[in-house]
Amino acid sequence: MQVFNVQGMTCGHCVKAVTRAVQAQDAAAQVEVDLAGKQVKVQSQLSAEQLLEAIREEGYQAESA
């Protein structure tokens, strides 16, 4: 499980956008978004850098927690 701090998420649309971005790179990825805590947990075969890039390409500031 990889955990990322993601800034800029404010609503359900943001949750869907981040989830779609990660799953576009790894269809089998399991994504859990905590809006209040501004964290995204991902179970994936991809590296943290690949996952961060996918989230950043959606327009969110992200870093490993």
TrEMBL record:
Pfam families found in the cross-reference section = HMA (PF00403)
Q: Which InterPro entries match?
A: Heavy-metal-associated_CS, HMA_dom, HMA_dom_sf
Q: Where are the transmembrane segments?
A: none
User: Which PROSITE patterns does this entry report, sorted A to Z?
Assistant: HMA_1, HMA_2
Sorted keywords for this record are: Metal-binding
Transport among keywords: no
Name under which the protein is recorded: Copper resistance protein CopZ
**Species of origin:** Pseudomonas cremoricolorata
